[in-house]
User: Fold this.
Amino acid sequence: MSFDPVVRLADVSRVHGDGPQAVAALQWPRARCDAGAVVLLVTHEPRYAGWADRVVFLRDGAIADSTAAPLESIR
Assistant:
C-alpha cells in the first residue's frame, strides 16, 4: 500500500532567487497538482504564486482577494 495524499502543503519561504533551485522547488508541487493533488503553497513572493492555478491573498488573517485564472508564471 502506498501513501499518496490528495492534499499537500508546500512552504517555499526558504527558496531564494529565480535560479534553478527556485524552479526545482516549484516543479514538484506543480507536477503533483497536475496529477490531481491539491497543493497549498505558502509564499510571500508573487513570482512563486505565478505557478498556481488560483491565488488567495490574505491580509490580517482574512481573505482580501483571490484569482481564479492562472497567473503569468516563471515556468
Observations:
- The chain has a mean pLDDT of 75.
- DSSP finds two helices and four strands in the chain.
- Helices lie at 20-34, 46-49.
